[in-house]
Design a protein that fits this description.
By secondary structure, this protein is mainly beta. Helix content is 0%, strand content 48%.
Length: 65
């Protein structure tokens, strides 16, 4: 009868500290902008079944005229 899902704090992939974001066992994130208040970095992540994957996006290129 225990319908409560356990929640976990998401840790920053840069500094390893807890962020303000919590996830549950059944949470799925795609291209989620994770912000760390400690190191001030924003990282795009995917998460499924408590496995976090960092999404590396190419920097924007300036267009030559």
């Amino acid at each position: 009868m225990d319908n409560m899902k356990k929640e976990y704090w998401v840790r920053c992939p840069v500094c390893g500290n807890k962020t303000r974001t919590r996830i549950r066992d059944d949470t799925e994130l795609k291209h989620f902008p994770l912000y760390c208040p400690k190191c001030k970095h924003e990282t795009i992540i995917n998460e499924k079944e408590l496995n976090i994957e960092i999404v590396i996006e190419p920097d924007a290129q300036t267009q030559s005229r």
